[in-house]
Amino acid sequence: MYNEKLEKDFLTILSEELVPAMGCTEPIALAYASAKAAEILGTVPEKIIAKCSGNIVKNVRCVSIPNSNGMLGTEAAVTLGALGGDSSLNMEVLESVTDSAITDTHKFIESGKCQIEFLDSEIPLHFVIIASANNDSVSVEVKYSHTNVVRIEKNGQILFDADSDSSSENSSADRSGLSIENIKDFADNIDLRKISPMYDKQIQCNMDIAYEGMAGDYGLGIGRIIRGCYEDSVVTRMKAYAAAASEARMDGCNMPVIINSGSGNQGIASSVPIIIYAREMNIPKEKLYRTLVFSSLLTIFQKEFIGKLSAFCGAVSASCASGAAITYMVGGSVKQIKATIDNTLANIPGIICDGAKISCGAKIASSIDAAMMAHYLAMADKAYEAYTGILKEDAGETISCVGYIGKVGMRETDKEIVKMLLKE
To answer: What is the model's pTM?
Structure first.
């Protein structure tokens, strides 16, 4: 039931999760920690060691680093962060990189001064940056979420030490109130003046990169291919623009996106399709705001069970949220919203995450297609019954079961994916 505490908690959750980031969030997290290490070191590092968990390795190796003139991978992210980054900008750490920093980064890497090591950790998002010069050395450790620094050491002296054994993801908000019903109540009743600035920024940033992806030379040009080869429809445009935004982001576009649950692709998939649909259908701005709130929180709710990184593709969760949010937007009942969720998760709960790369755009397009099919079924009062496969009596329970599969059941899958990538 909607109340002041729920409102405060949900507003805090949104402020924590809907933040701007430039580029794929895993390499940017490395660049952030590396910039911080260099700043504490107080001079240009002579050597950098980055110890990275499997999911960090997986999500950094194939993406272009923004503002790097096309550099790829872990060494580039770590070195450019140290030589040209500004940690005060958080996930936009590489915003003001200079040409000289790019040149110095190439030289640093070519001379073998950046070393990448595998960190055998049960925590999917976990890495340590060690920067050294002369006789000084600084270590910055990050766990659970992208800018969650848990420990800083300089020359063996601890400068900062959070509870690094905690499983906390550095959230100050109480998330226990997240449920489909509470999310709908919040979206229905929140004073729009409290959220419209946040969503104005999301609309601007995420649509700007969608337009750039459609117009620019990124990846395979998937957005234009979808527009050109499929029948013109609102669903075709939803898929095309969301996929193009992802592809541009993965291929080094330096435009920021508003992320969700630590992921720009989830931020895109949970917003761009809704914005396209609302514009095509002349939905009032007020309803668009409320629908984006619904989608944001439903994405976050699903990711609470899965975690920031796993072998489960986040495009599924975010696109599922988009489909359910469109059911909400057009006046669907709670029953129909839940049916959209169940119909989506009955179809595509098994898409694996094999790392961040330009083909993430294709996964987003496929997931949006599935979510819209689920929406149309739900609006026709068609839904797969409970206990059909992994579906449960209630969509909220289905979400928790899919989350368990993604976080626990696919843990060994994740390890095998990383092993395959490390063999290359």
So the answer is: 0.93
